[in-house]
Amino acid sequence: MVIRGAASLTGANQPLYVIDGMPIDNNQITSKGNDITKASGSYQDWGSILNFINADDIEDVSVLKGPTAAALYGARGGNGVVLITTKKEN
Q1: For residue range 26-35, what is the model confidence (pLDDT) as tens digits?
Q2: pLDDT digits over 48-63, tens only?
Q3: Three-state secondary-structure class, residue 72
């Protein structure tokens, strides 16, 4: 997901994800070589940490961009912030 457009030559344009107040690293989970694929030199894309969130558990999603995101989350929020609030059990 890209919120504010391509701002980096290295491709690091991902927003910061904050789930219930906890910033989450959204880098891709990959493996190479013998650890999972057993095929030397081939990569396996396992998605990101967001794959482990059940959509039925999400209560609210908000998007912050611009100076608001940077003011609240610093440089990590420079590409925008996606705030995810999950449902609480009573």
Answers
A1: 766 655 555 5
A2: 778 888 999 999 999 9
A3: helix
Looking up tokens 């880098």 gives: 27
Residue 73: φ, ψ to 5° = -120, 10
Write out the two tokens for 83. Answer: 């705030």
Domain boundaries, the chain: 16-86
The SS3 of residue 79 is: coil
- SS3 sequence, 4-35? CCCCCCCCCCCCEEEECCEEECCCCCEEEECC
pLDDT at residue 3 in the model: 74
Amino acid at position 52, single letter: F
Between CA 55 and CA 90 the distance in angstroms is 19
